[in-house]
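CORE FACILITY INTAKE
Project code: CF-77B
Contact: R.S. (postdoc)
Sample description: multi-component assembly, two entities in total
Requested service: structural model of the whole complex
Turnaround: standard
Below are the sequence entries exactly as provided by the requester. Do not edit them.
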Amino acid sequence: MIKLQNVNKVYRTKTIETTALSDINLNIDKGEFLSIMGPSGCGKSTLLNIIGLLDEPSGGEVNIGGNALPNYNTKAMAQFRNQQLGFIFQSFHLIPDLTVRDNVELPLLYRKVGGKDRKRMAEEALESVGLKNRVSHFPNQLSGGQKQRVAIARAIVGNPEIILADEPTGNLDSIMGNEVMDILLELNSKNDTTIVMVTHDENMAKKTHKLIRLYDGQQVA
Amino acid sequence: MISNYIKLAIRVLGRNKFFTAISLFGISFTLAILMLIVSVMETEVGQTPPLSEKDKMVIVPNLNLKRQFYDTIYAYDTTMYNGAQVIDTSFTLNESGQNNSNNEFAYWFLEKHLSNVPNAKNFTFFNSNNVYNSYVNNSKVELKTVYSDHRFWDLFDFQFVEGFGFGESAVENEELVAVITTELADKYFGKVENVVGEILEMDRKNFKVIGVVEPAGIMLLAVDIIVPYTHDNIDAQRRNENGFGGYMGMFVGEKNSDVGLIKNDIEFINSNTEVPAVAQDNYDIIEFKPFSFHEAYAGQILDLDDEEESLKWMKWIMFSLMGFLIILPTLNLINLNVSRIMERSSEIGVRKAFGADRNTILFQFVVENIVQTFIGGLIGLVMAMLFIYLINDTKLMGDVILKLNYRFFFFSLIICLIFGLVSGLLPAYRMSKMHVVSALKQNKL
């Protein structure tokens, strides 16, 4: 499903060159739930951004579902992200001026799905995370756990093949963190959704199928 | 999608109310001033009654009689030739001065020379230089008076609220009839419903009111009462004089392009007109220049010698003023919008992550800005209407009555749209180029 070959990422300024990732080789099968762990600054989020087509590697090849990254232009990548990928962020990144329903509908808006269908699909996604009764609320009216569940609903509303989660439980207490993790595990087992998750939490990582560790931009395990 | 953006635009405005208030005030005040300028232009030079056919009109405002003096300039005063002094015979003639008299026309002169302009659909001669005083209940009422012929009512589309204008027979028979404005009717007769048939005393004559019109509200026709020219005693005394008087000629063509043809006709007539016999001792050149309405208007405002040059300068000044009034607040609004949009970098990152491409982001923010501008424009429209009401009520612009019509609203709408597009495009473009990862790292949502 996802294949990375000799991927590296170097950040260059006028005076400094920083290697964020070096020689990463990765194979993720369909339906797999992968965790990426490592100390702060080791390149976990950079790796996730590259897999999610939010950033381009400085070298190497990224292949998702048989499509090679260098073949994509910016518009095609945006379309691919919309159709095939879902994102969950540590800070939730819900748009404060939109209601819960409008936030969840966001990916469908860019697929030009009609209003009635968008509403139905958004409500189904919210029901699957247990928040159907909050459709007209605004993000500032929700708890942290609820916000993250809305973010999950937004990530799954378009039935993506792959979900990328960047420390989804990082800003939550253990109870809410477990709730969110349970939702992700259920998605993975029931819908066969491939999930790549960056986490600091060993307990969460143990629940996934595979774990890779990064250290100073390199794969160590 | 657009309805989503509009909904979002309105919600974003509510996010920081103080900031929004400042932003909207700036937009609305600027747009109010622009709308006011549009209203002034529309009233003075637009297609508004009673001068709806301004673009087809030619004015001949005055008569110019001249005598040119020439001076003989010798190349050498005297010279020596074969030892003898001889007077030089090589010389040039240069203009050294002129006698010049300039004034409006006597009616008879216009009737004699300019009643037959081939390309003019219609014409009229009128004198708007007269002011009489009348007294009502011991109060002085000033009467700005126009003397004219029956064709006046065909050329100018005054809006009658009662009665009608005087016809050819009324003029020829020197009937004591008058058309007055609603303002004069109120001043002279009080708030009565029908004044047609009432008698008004002016210049020691009793005129019967046969029509009441809305005031023209423009400088050229800022009058209170219109009567047949046959009652103009002063003009009657000028029948055997040099052609000067208080009248000007106004001609109208079928279409705008006839203006050039009418001007050519009048210039041709001019070139074949001789100085009136009584004036030939003092003058040998006669000139009556035709101008389009806009040239004459520009000449009146700028007071340059050449009306065509005045119109060019007036266009430059108006465009520069409008440009200045649009550019400065636009630049300010661009600046405000850039900082406002920077607050939403993270949102842009999220949208891009979920599939919005650069053009979609650009479109969203331009739509939001246009919504903001239209809200500001609506407030500005209310402000402009208030300014117009105050200007008309206090007569700040003298006899000019600013008007609100569908053209005013149309131009106001266009101004709002341009303003919204221009002030929103640059900030939106800048933000649409932002890298997704950098955007997501900015101000957390």
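Facility notes:
- The CA atoms of residues 85 and 162 of chain A lie 5 Å apart.
- Chain A has one domain: 2-219.
Invoice: internal transfer
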